[in-house]
Design brief:
alpha/beta, six-stranded mixed β-sheet, 7 helices
Length: 338
């Protein structure tokens, strides 16, 4: 989605402040998942994403500011210019827009949307920027050990199926064409006697309990990301406030748990992941560009991608595909069409 004037390049910002990305990534391992490994992967994805965004925006003619952190924005002399609560409020407001039905469209926006204009202007003043870019990434990356376990599980299942088929074939061959004979010593007459062992029991003996299952079986793997309390604000226009305090949109705030595999994003809440045996790599990415002048949404894109968060090339490619949808800064010539 894109604001019509921005799409036509009648207006473009000159300097864009990149907010610290919200990254929720689970490293899906064989057996118990190590939270420290997931946190390390999340930090690596964050660093790679920021670097790729910086390069991508500069290549499109924009100046870039990277001074915003989730604990606040400070001046060169250490003075706190914007506190963490204001930044968290702005992020929640952007997510309320991103999670709302109004963010499902594509192409030029039919109606303007404004996100926390007062806070957006404050962040713009602190970073000397006229637009703000917010990025939210959540996803799962399968470790090499988990992939090896998946292969072994497939082989194990194939062996079990083959054993059952062979047992059925042997039972059919041994019992085929014979007439039922009365049971002896059972007091029952006219009951057939099956020859050979029941194949279902054989299969049960070969399948150990809990083999090749994640731990805990079927339980959620939680990737928390706390941001503290977010104040309730109101602003002019159709405003998406933070922490569930807006008049429009869907609020995702403190204490909310959202599934990792879905198009709902969170800033203050947590993301859970069901530890499935045959899970694959997946990233859910949302990017929103907001004007620091009036909080107007200039550009928004979200997408589900089959990419490996452990591979920097995949992360760079993801960022490049998104940033490539942002118009060149006004005054720059359009590249020749191929």
């Amino acid at each position: 989605m894109i604001e019509p004037a921005f799409a036509a390049r009648a207006y473009t910002p000159l300097r864009i402040a990149v907010l610290q990305p919200d990254v929720f990534v689970v490293l899906d391992q064989f057996g118990d998942n190590d939270p420290a490994a997931s946190a390390a992967l999340g930090q690596a994805v964050t660093n790679e994403t920021v670097q790729a965004i910086n390069q991508g925006l500069r290549s499109r003619g924009y100046d870039v500011d990277l001074s915003a952190r989730w604990d606040g924005i400070v001046a060169g002399d250490g003075t706190l210019l914007v506190n963490r609560d204001e930044l968290g409020y702005l992020a929640n407001g952007i997510l309320q827009f991103g999670n709302s039905p109004e963010a499902n469209g594509s192409g030029p926006m039919s109606a303007p949307a404004f996100i926390a204009p007062d806070v957006a202007a404050h962040v713009g003043w602190a970073t000397q920027s006229d637009a703000l870019l917010y990025v939210n990434v959540k996803g799962v990356a399968v470790s090499s050990g988990k992939r090896a376990g998946e292969i072994l599980a497939v082989v194990f299942i194939v062996v079990i199926i083959a054993a059952i088929i062979l047992a059925l074939a042997a039972s059919s061959k041994n019992g085929g064409g014979s007439s039922p004979s009365p049971g002896r010593g059972s007091g029952m007459r006219g009951q057939p006697v099956m020859r050979g062992s029941p194949p279902s029991n054989a299969g049960a003996r070969l399948a150990p309990s809990g083999a090749f299952r994640g731990s805990p079986p079927g339980g959620p793997i939680v990737a928390p990301r706390g941001r503290g309390m977010v104040p309730t604000r109101t602003g002019p226009g159709r405003v998406y406030g933070g922490g569930g305090g807006s008049q429009v949109g869907v609020g995702i705030g403190i204490g909310v748990v959202v599934p990792l595999d879905g198009p709902v994003y969170t800033h203050d809440g947590t993301v859970d992941h069901e530890d499935e045996m045959f899970a694959g790599d997946q990233l859910y990415v949302s990017m929103t560009l907001v004007s620091a002048i009036d909080g107007r949404v200039l550009w928004h894109q979200r997408q589900s991608l089959d990419l490996d968060a452990q591979d920097p090339r995949d992360v760079d490619g993801m960022v490049g595909s998104f940033i490539g949808g942002i118009p060149l800064r006004a005054g720059l010539p359009e590249p020749p069409r191929k």
